[in-house]
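Q: what sequence does this backbone want?
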């Protein structure tokens, strides 16, 4: 059958490189429905609530602040080792349309546990709306994507396999979701070590969360505890920050 050859755009080339870098990572996944009534109520009362991506980025980073394993990556150079980062670095999958083509670019957010929810949300929104050239992570990743294939493979290998560079290029965890497009249980693939995905809020005030992780870094029991802790953080620290952002009512004083 005669078809039409098409050139692979830089945006699809990025995904090709990402999939190549993810090959061979022994991923395991664990999913659970989290009860989130307090954070739902706090978010409903906020005038301009943070998006769910920002909420999960900060919540996971708060858990990782007390769980060093969530800031640990597997590296191969100069020899196979586990490397603990001093702080979390999130990468958020940002859906965009560039030159009429749908694509996904990774927005990097360093130390989200130390930022306000509003600041995390602003970084994600900036990744959605700002020109690619104005977002440092986008500029860096697209420069690498435009290199010839041998140099691309080398740059990705350096970014993935030296501990210090791993945090600079790929971070300690990723957040990806299709909830904005109707939901579904997404099991994304990245170089790892941790990927968090979430679905739609259900009528019973739960939200389904999936964590995929590099089995070389940790096992299932710690991740099960992480999901429990994530539910607690959503309903306490995150809910409290959302509630604190609610403007106080102004009472008229009668003379």
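A:
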């Amino acid at each position: 059958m005669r078809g039409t050859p098409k050139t692979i755009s830089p945006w699809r080339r990025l995904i090709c490189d990402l999939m190549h870098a993810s090959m061979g990572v022994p991923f395991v996944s664990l999913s659970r429905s989290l009860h989130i009534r307090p954070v739902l109520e706090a978010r409903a009362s906020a005038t301009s609530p943070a998006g769910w991506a920002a909420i999960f980025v900060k919540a996971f980073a708060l858990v990782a602040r007390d769980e060093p394993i969530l800031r640990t990556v597997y590296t191969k150079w100069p020899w196979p080792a586990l490397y603990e980062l001093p702080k979390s670095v999130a990468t958020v999958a940002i859906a965009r349309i560039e030159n009429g083509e749908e694509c996904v670019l990774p927005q990097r957010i360093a130390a989200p546990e130390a930022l306000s929810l509003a600041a995390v949300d602003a970084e994600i929104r900036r990744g959605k709306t700002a020109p690619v050239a104005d977002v440092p992570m986008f500029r860096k990743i697209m420069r690498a994507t435009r290199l010839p294939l041998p140099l691309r493979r080398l740059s990705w290998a350096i970014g993935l396999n030296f501990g210090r560079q791993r945090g600079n290029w790929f971070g300690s965890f990723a957040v990806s979701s299709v909830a904005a497009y109707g939901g579904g249980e997404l099991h994304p693939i990245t170089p790892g070590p941790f990927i968090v995905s979430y679905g739609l809020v259900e009528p019973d005030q739960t939200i389904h969360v999936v964590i995929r992780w590099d089995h070389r870094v940790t096992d299932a029991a710690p991740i099960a505890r992480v999901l429990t802790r994530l539910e607690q953080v959503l309903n306490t620290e995150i809910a409290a920050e959302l509630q604190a952002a609610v403007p106080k009512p102004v009472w008229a004083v009668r003379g």
